[in-house]
Amino acid sequence: MAARGQNISLVFPRVSLLPLGIGSSRKWLCRACMPSPSRTQKIMEGLSSGIEAGGAGGASSYAALKRVDVQWLQMRTQKSVTGPKPEVAVRNTGRCLEIASEPKVYDVIVCGGTLGIFVAAALSLKGFDVAVIEKGKLQGRVQDWNISRKELDELVKSGLLSYEDLQNVVSTEFNPNRCGFKGSLEVWVEDILNLGVSPFKLVEVIKTKFLKMGGVILEGSAVSKLKVFDDAVELLLDNNKTLYSRLVIDAMGNFSPIVQQIRCGQKPDGICLVVGTCARGFQKNSTSDILYSTHPSIPLGESNIQFFWEAFPAGSGPKDRTTYLFSYMDVNPQCPSLEEMLELYWDLLPEYQDVELNDLEILRVLFGIFPTYRSRHEDSLMFSLPFFFFNN
Ligand SMILES: Cc1cc2nc3c(=O)[nH]c(=O)nc-3n(C[C@H](O)[C@H](O)[C@H](O)COP(=O)(O)OP(=O)(O)OC[C@H]3O[C@@H](n4cnc5c(N)ncnc54)[C@H](O)[C@@H]3O)c2cc1C
Fold first, then answer.
1. Cβ of 339 less than 6 Å from ligand 1
2. Ligand 1 centroid – CA 141 distance (Å)
3. Residues 324, 259: Cα–Cα separation, whole Å
């Protein structure tokens, strides 16, 4: 099931600018200096391709990295609102069910299946007639999700999972968990984000339960338009199918077309960038870092950036560890690309985890972007539309 990387050699010329004193005025890496192919490209293209899931962090190929980097470049270089406002959800007066082309009306349709399937199953359990629409295949990623036991127990309390189901999806458990700044304050806590769960198995279990309860899943169908009438919502899919529902829940993630409409193509105010790997070969692998900083702000690209680490034992083996380098920043054209951040990650990881890159077998490379927006007046207007919950 899991995507396993080949044991690739990580001996590459360190042609990016190397750290010559943290916090010095020297740029760590300048865009023009990044060699082609980059170290990141060589590493990623040497890995065997695994299952790619539709949800965030579900793709780990170099091509997928470039796709997200193009999206991120457009985001940070756009001026503000560009082009006409996307019209995905529109308000129509009157009623639609009397003249509906399709007699079936769902109580709830959940758009987006990664976390959406959990909401859908919980509503099904309460007796509602529910359908899920998922653009790709409805499956969880291979890479663990980290979560606290308390959060996961909610799924048992709600009746969606049994404790036996939980046993089968929890792949690893570890304590203690650290937060801190190297050389300064360090706080060790217990039971915070200390479980690794297999999203692939967890989503599969919930999906099976949902289907058994009579839930309907439409995979390989993207929602392209929603018309909100007084009595129901008419949903148009990209395969020309039309569905009707009394309530629609948007669970399409950060890049939901409904969120794009609410934001009117607005440039995000902030961004969280994350890069990392799941790799094999860590001798010290019993504790985790929830949030740990090893350096003061570092010059990268044209910006000074404060980086943080996360590190967790991974469920795939005793020496397998997931390590993420992430940062929060204002959005401007000088922000680094994900590939630039990965170049920095390869440079900093050995010191942070006391390992040699050459001693690690990279299983998969991980990355993602999380845009953030300040609230605006228009948002509250959109939220007041009937039949909708919005996820962002
Ligand atoms: C590298 C990385 C590591 C992470 N690690 C963790 C972790 O350890 N623990 C944790 O809790 N979270 C983690 N996250 C956060 C992660 O975003 C969430 O756990 C989870 O993926 C969010 O699920 P979601 O369903 O809200 O959104 P998404 O995962 O973005 O899923 C949205 C779904 O909607 C579908 N969709 C999109 N558009 C349409 C459309 N038009 N029609 C129909 N379907 C559509 C997509 O195909 C997708 O399946 C991580 C994220 C990244 C990037």
1. no
2. 9
3. 27
Tell me the three state secondary structure of residue 313: strand
Name the average pLDDT for the chain. 86
**C-alpha–C-alpha distance, residues 155 and 166, integer Å:** 9
pLDDT the model gives residue 78: 83
> Ligand 1: which of 69, 114, 275, 289 to mutate, most ligand atoms within 8 Å of CB?
114
The boundaries of every CATH 3.50.50.60 domain in the chain are 89-174+190-264+375-389
Kindly state if the Cβ of 5 falls inside 6 Å of ligand 1. no
pLDDT band at 376; cut points 50, 70, 90: low
Q: Which residues lie across from 327 on neighbouring strands?
A: 273
- What is residue 33's predicted lDDT score, i.e. its pLDDT? 66
Residues in the chain: 392
Strands (E), the chain: 89-91, 106-111, 130-134, 145-147, 170-173, 177-181, 186-189, 195-197, 216-219, 223-228, 233-237, 242-250, 270-280, 288-293, 298-300, 303-305, 308-313, 320-330, 361-372, 388-389
Residue 389, pLDDT above cutoff 50: no
Q: Which tens digit of pLDDT belongs to each residue from 136-154? A: 999 999 999 999 999 999 9
Asked if omega into 333 is within 30° of 0 (cis), the reply is: no
User: What mean pLDDT is predicted for residues 344-366?
Assistant: 96
Residue type, 142: V
What class has domain 89-174+190-264+375-389? alpha beta
